């Protein structure tokens, strides 16, 4: 197949040659190959300034990321065959790592499929498409998932805010089979119910390993799970033997699922929920003289854009300080950040500043990041976003 060229400016091929997959709009030689000549999602052959091919990509003239490479081969297009190969490779990795079918099956660029995320809940798949190029082949995506995994149902949760940046509409629909309203999840031997209409795909698999690390510190202690969502941390702490767990979230439906999952695992007598803004709850608990052996802070991204870094760092500092005020001597703080723009040094620094303001000593015991079902592309820093520290506060 002959593909139209997308020519880059002089020296703008260096990042691609180093392994990156993105072409930004200001890197394109629009006098030679106008971006406006491409329909959103159309395939092109990416070339350096001299016309040498660098690979194939899908293009979106409406996006800051104007093109995303799908192959280093000069004529390879994004089609059903490529999708089946890449999804099959992703599945083989997960099957080798996990003994139960609950994981992130496809992680975008980390699995060579830019714009596609798929989470697996046993026999049900929940997929998110975030780019025009992947949306253009969405029927092929669904068919490839059916042939590779054989699910009983596939849900397209194409309602993320990022789709607007690609000029895409927002929608949710069942693409194949039947999808229940409540998803069943098993993680670290603990069972959960999660809403299919919940945050993201309904569950956050990225913290699986970090929640496993937390379990050893929870036994026999009072645990506070802040920003709890449906209780991934809190219910696992109770299952690990925590004396009592308090889950705090602003969402009443999310807290209902905390209670459902606590009941499912026979720990409902040791799990309580509290509906409140996280910062308000931390301050109220402190004013009431409450103390905990373990506090888990797993907030949503406080820093969504680089320009928000300073304000976001202060939010992390404040949250960690309020959490430390609730810790008994030698208590354990589990502090996490899913903000890509917050480096690990920044999160650790926020924890340190919080401890010094309180005159308490901080020991970092363990450090975690996203699990292996979220593989990092070494040339794309954006694929490494999750940070987590387990620390003792004297």
Characterization of the model:
With 394 residues, this protein is of the alpha/beta class. It folds into three domains: 5-71, PUA domain (Archaeosine Trna-guanine Transglycosylase, Chain: A, domain 4), CATH 2.30.130.10; 80-180, Transcription Regulator spoIIAA (2-Layer Sandwich); 204-393, 3-Layer(aba) Sandwich (Rossmann fold). The protein has ten helices and 19 strands. The longest helix is centred in the N-terminal third of the chain and has 18 residues, at 80-97.
CATH architect. name of the largest domain? 3-Layer(aba) Sandwich
Please give the count of helices.
10
Structural class: alpha/beta
Strand content: 25-35%
Look at the structure and give the CATH class of the largest domain: Alpha Beta
Care to count the β-strands?
19
Helical residue percent?
25-40%
Unreliable residue runs: none
Report the end-to-end length measured between terminal Cα atoms.
65 Å
CATH superfamily of the largest domain: Vaccinia Virus protein VP39
Overall number of structural domains:
3
CATH fold naming of the largest domain: Rossmann fold
* Largest sheet descriptor: 7 strands, mixed
List the main descriptive attributes of the protein structure presented here:
29% strand; Rossmann fold; five-stranded mixed beta sheet; alpha/beta; globular; 394 residues; single chain; Archaeosine Trna-guanine Transglycosylase, Chain: A, domain 4; Transcription Regulator spoIIAA
Topology summary:
Layout: E1 5-7, H1 14-17, E2 22-24, E3 42-47, E4 53-59, E5 65-71, H2 80-97, E6 102-107, E7 116-121, E8 124-129, H3 132-136, H4 138-149, E9 153-158, E10 171-177, E11 182-187, E12 190-195, H5 208-218, E13 222-226, H6 232-239, E14 244-249, H7 252-264, E15 271-275, H8 278-287, E16 292-297, H9 309-325, E17 327-337, H10 344-358, E18 362-368, E19 387-393
Parallel strand pairs: 1-3, 8-9, 13-14, 13-16, 14-15, 16-17
Antiparallel strand pairs: 2-5, 3-4, 4-5, 6-7, 7-8, 9-10, 11-12, 17-19, 18-19
